[in-house]
């Protein structure tokens, strides 16, 4: 199965694009088959069309399930005094993500959660308030502020963390007795991660990827049993030092690694070059430049849930054009702007893990001599800025908290062993992957969980 996403930078034929934009996915698939089966086309275009077949399969399946009427009913039944013109306005300003399906407006599967969790004015109008969610948010703010103060007082922090992760096929996609291949992410050994241990797994693990794998997993291979859940429980030590970046301390010589483009996402497009030049001006100091990029993303880009990354052609440009995006979208824009400016930058992702919430999260690293690799968490920084927590906003430029499980150091990298069919997430890996010998499952076809078992401060 073709996995290289770099060909997504190749444009689609005009007629395919027309059908896709209208939402005639059956017609678009038919047109693509015609190109692949009956026309002599260049290899690059063939690869692009093969990828597009999969993208359309995701877009047309369940990524945008709600009709306009269904979306309006959802908003009016859950929000006090909500009017149709408000939905129309939210659609027009890009706050409510939508596409055409067969010429009719459909809204993205997370549009309601996105609106009520990122826009305080709408959250205040929810008829039945989620007190548990409000409590979690309050505890998150307290936890993050407490970490900032601890790090500044002690200069660093080390924790021992234990997590359990699971994945299983939903009942209707369970094919009992068939051979399955399953991957679950585990911690990658880094400067900040050591002492990784596997404490439990079910069924028996077939293979554990090397400690330095770009996207590290445990791999299971077995015949599927009824209602079978795949589980791994692991622990690791996680250490972070506190740093205050001083432009005056920047070394005269800076390294030249991690500066390349990586198609289709880390691309130095004409628009991103214009944006970089506007933000940078005549400045050359890497700390000042990185801070300008951080400030732009955290204060100008609205946090927003997005559709599956695989369906977005160039993620950083999407972020910079639409001025919205989630943690990974924002991180990739920052990474790209840094690389364009000669500042080494790279990806890091895995889990954000606390007693109140454990789930997927992405952030960035950038390198400035003499400091070495330091962090930038764009979405956490933006959240702090919007909440008026300026100390925490400044903290996430250069620093990270301890509530992390890093599993991935790069995007678009193969597993060890490799997956045969298209991945649930061909960009990243935080939830796991599940496939049969003749096809893989999509995210909507599996159930996943991640749970923090314990986290304890330890001496380092």
UniProtKB/TrEMBL annotation:
Residue intervals of the Transglutaminase-like domain: 319-380
Pfam families to which the protein is assigned, alphabetical: Transglut_core
Alphabetical list of Gene3D superfamilies matching this protein: 3.10.620.30
Protein name: Transglutaminase domain-containing protein
């Amino acid at each position: 199965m073709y996995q290289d996403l770099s060909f997504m930078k190749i444009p689609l034929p005009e007629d395919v694009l027309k059908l896709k934009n209208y939402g005639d996915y059956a017609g678009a698939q038919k047109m693509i088959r015609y190109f692949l089966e009956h026309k002599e086309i260049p290899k690059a275009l063939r690869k692009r069309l093969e990828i597009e077949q999969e993208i359309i399969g995701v877009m047309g399946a369940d990524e945008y399930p709600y009709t306009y009427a269904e979306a309006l009913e959802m908003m009016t039944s859950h929000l006090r005094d909500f009017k149709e013109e408000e939905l129309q306005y939210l659609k027009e300003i890009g706050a409510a993500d939508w596409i055409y399906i067969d010429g009719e407006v459909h809204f993205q599967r997370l549009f309601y959660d996105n609106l009520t969790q990122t826009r305080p004015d709408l959250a205040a109008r929810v008829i039945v308030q989620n007190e548990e969610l409000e409590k979690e948010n309050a505890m998150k703010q307290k936890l993050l502020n407490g970490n900032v103060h601890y790090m500044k007082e002690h200069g660093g922090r080390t924790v021992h963390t234990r997590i359990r992760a699971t994945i299983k096929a939903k009942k209707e996609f369970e094919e009992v007795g068939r051979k399955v291949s399953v991957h679950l992410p585990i911690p990658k050994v880094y400067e900040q991660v050591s002492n990784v241990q596997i404490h439990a797994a079910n069924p028996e693990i077939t293979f554990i990827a090397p400690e330095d794998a770009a996207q590290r997993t445990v791999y299971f291979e077995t015949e599927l049993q009824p209602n079978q859940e795949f589980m791994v429980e692991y622990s690791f030590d996680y250490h972070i030092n506190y740093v205050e970046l001083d432009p005056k301390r920047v070394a005269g010589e800076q390294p030249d690694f991690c500066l390349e483009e990586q198609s289709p996402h880390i691309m130095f497009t004409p628009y991103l070059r214009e944006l970089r030049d506007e933000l940078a001006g005549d400045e050359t100091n890497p700390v000042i430049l990185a801070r300008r990029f951080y400030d732009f993303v955290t204060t100008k880009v609205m946090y927003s849930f997005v559709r599956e990354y695989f369906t977005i052609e160039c993620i950083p440009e999407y972020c910079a054009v639409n001025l919205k995006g989630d943690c990974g979208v924002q991180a990739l824009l920052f990474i790209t702007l840094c690389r364009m400016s000669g500042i080494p930058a790279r990806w890091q992702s895995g889990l954000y893990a606390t007693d109140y919430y454990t789930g997927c999260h992405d952030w960035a690293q950038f390198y400035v001599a003499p400091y070495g690799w330091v962090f930038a968490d764009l979405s956490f920084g933006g959240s702090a800025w919007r909440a008026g927590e300026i100390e925490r906003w400044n903290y996430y430029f250069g620093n990270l908290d301890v509530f992390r499980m890093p599993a991935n150091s790069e995007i678009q990298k193969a597993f060890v062993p490799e997956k045969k069919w298209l991945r649930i997430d061909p960009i990243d890996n935080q939830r796991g992957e599940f496939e049969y010998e003749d096809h893989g499952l999509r995210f909507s076809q599996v159930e996943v969980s991640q749970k923090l078992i314990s986290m304890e401060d330890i001496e380092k």
